[in-house]
UniProtKB/TrEMBL annotation:
Catalyzed reactions per annotation: (L-glutamyl)(n)-gamma-L-glutamyl-L-glutamyl-[protein] + L-glutamate + ATP = (L-glutamyl)(n+1)-gamma-L-glutamyl-L-glutamyl-[protein] + ADP + phosphate + H(+)
Main subcellular location of this protein, as a coarse class: cytoplasm
Subcellular location: Cytoplasm, Cytoskeleton, Cilium basal body
GO biological process, one term: microtubule cytoskeleton organization
Keywords in alphabetical order: ATP-binding, Cell projection, Cilium, Cytoplasm, Cytoskeleton, Ligase, Microtubule, Nucleotide-binding
A Pfam family it matches: TTL
Highest taxon above the source species: Eukaryota
Name of the protein: Polyglutamylase complex subunit TTLL1
Organism: Ignelater luminosus
Gene3D superfamilies: ATP-grasp fold, B domain
GO molecular function (one): ATP binding
GO cellular component terms, semicolon-separated: ciliary basal body; microtubule
Subunit composition and interactions: Part of the neuronal tubulin polyglutamylase complex which contains TPGS1, TPGS2, TTLL1, LRRC49 and NICN1. Interacts with PCM1, CSTPP1 and LRRC49.
Length: 409
């Protein structure tokens, strides 16, 4: 059957993957089966005003309100609500010790400004001179981020934002302010974070897969936590969009290291057991960040989504969730990047399109091991809810991550 695709992103990786399958590119006004869209396009398509209704043979790469996890303020709000709800239920996952969550402590202490200003000040005064990082809620690629270690600096920024007639949006824009992870794990003296890809094919029931081939993004300048370097974003921000302008940027490797090589480095320096524990904790935080937004995401059987997770590891090998991107960059900065992103798209299409090769939302979304490629199952609530995990065949079809989740649940 003829399969048509549509995209509003000028990315060769999308078009090349679709054309390789023999799919035919059409415009948004034509009859399309698969739409790889930007977030704004998706929002307008799902808006009440558009009146657009998808048929059973159409799928799109975003959920209607994907921003519940990708907007920095909403992610924090949803995780905090998730913890409170579990606490009310008396769930063991919400256990506390020394006022911290023992199992759900995977985001830094964070407040939304200006709404939470008084709560932030109260927290700040417990440890004056501590470093905090300010991020605008609705922006990406490191735009508008800065660090503070004095309350006076925040007050000065607030006054300037309110009186600047050229940028009135600064006064209205909400920010998140988070305790800065000032003890990051360093390799070669440099700070880095992890970019991991997570594919969600359904939120209710939750079905999610993690891509094995993520990468680390490094700063170009050696880490220095001194006050003198507080404004040097080449020391503190790992975003490629920031680092590529630095004098030390190496275009050959793009300041990137594969997750496989990170794993090998950690196994040789810290040991295999603690490395395995770290990666299990990363899977744990991804699962629970998804469960935190599960009640509020408008799940739709026409939708799937590939999220870009940004995670920082501290020097005690504890992972911290920094943010989640609804449109992780498909731009290739190196040859390895291009290979990884082509494989990512190819594997995604293998999972979201039924074995027949023709999109159909009535499909039960049971994916064969062969179709997973470099993805591994993170969680499938269908298996959990129906007790099928005792069935050997089911476990053979799915990843060990599910077995881990039975323990975590």
């Amino acid at each position: 059957m003829r399969v048509t695709f549509c995209t509003d992103l000028d990315k060769n990786v999308v078009v090349a993957n679709c054309e390789k399958r023999g799919w035919i590119q059409v415009g948004p006004e034509d009859d399309w089966n698969i739409y790889w869209a930007g977030t704004l396009t998706c929002r307008s398509l799902f808006s009440v005003d558009s009146g657009y209704r998808m048929n059973d043979n159409q799928i799109i790469n975003h959920f209607p309100n994907h921003y519940e996890i990708s907007r920095k303020d909403l992610l924090v709000k949803n995780i905090k609500r998730y913890r409170r709800d579990l606490e009310k239920e008396g769930n063991v996952l919400a256990e506390r010790g020394d006022s911290k969550y023992l199992h759900l402590d995977f985001i830094p202490v964070t407040f939304v400004l200006p709404a939470d200003y008084n709560m932030f000040v109260e927290e700040y005064r417990k440890a004056p001179q501590s470093t905090w990082i300010m991020k605008p809620c609705g922006r990406s690629q490191g735009s508008g981020i800065f660090l503070i270690n004095k309350l006076s600096k925040l007050k000065r920024w607030s006054r300037e934002a309110n009186k600047n007639p050229l940028q009135p949006q600064l006064a209205k824009e909400s920010y998140v302010i988070s305790r800065y992870i000032d003890n990051p794990l360093l390799i070669g003296g440099k700070k880095f974070d992890l970019r991991l890809y997570v594919l969600v094919t359904s939120f209710r029931p939750l079905k999610a897969y993690q891509f094995r081939l993520g990468f680390c993004r490094f700063c170009t300048v050696k880490y220095d936590s001194s006050v003198a370097e507080l404004d040097n974003m080449y020391v503190h921000l790992t975003n490629v969009s920031v680092q590529k302008h630095g004098e030390e940027y190496n275009a050959l490797h793009g300041g990137k290291l594969s997750v496989q090589n990170l794993r090998l480095h950690l196994e040789s320096t810290r040991g295999k057991e603690v490395t395995e524990r770290l990666f299990d904790q990363i899977s744990w935080l991804i699962i629970h960040s998804l469960k935190a937004v599960q009640p509020v995401i408008a799940t739709d059987r026409h939708c799937f989504e590939c999220y870009g997770y940004d995670i920082i590891i501290d020097n005690k090998l504890k992972p911290w969730l920094i943010e989640v991107n609804a449109s992780p960059s498909l731009t290739s900065t190196t040859a390895n990047d291009r290979i990884l992103k082509h494989k990512l798209l190819d594997n995604i299409f293998n999972i979201v399109v039924p074995p027949s090769g023709y999109p159909d939302v009535r499909w039960n979304k049971i994916v064969s091991t062969e179709a997973l490629g470099d993805f591994e199952l993170l969680i499938d609530e269908d298996i959990l809810n129906h007790g099928n995990h005792d069935d050997t065949a089911s476990l053979d079809r799915h990843s060990n991550r599910s077995a881990n989740f039975y323990r975590w649940k």
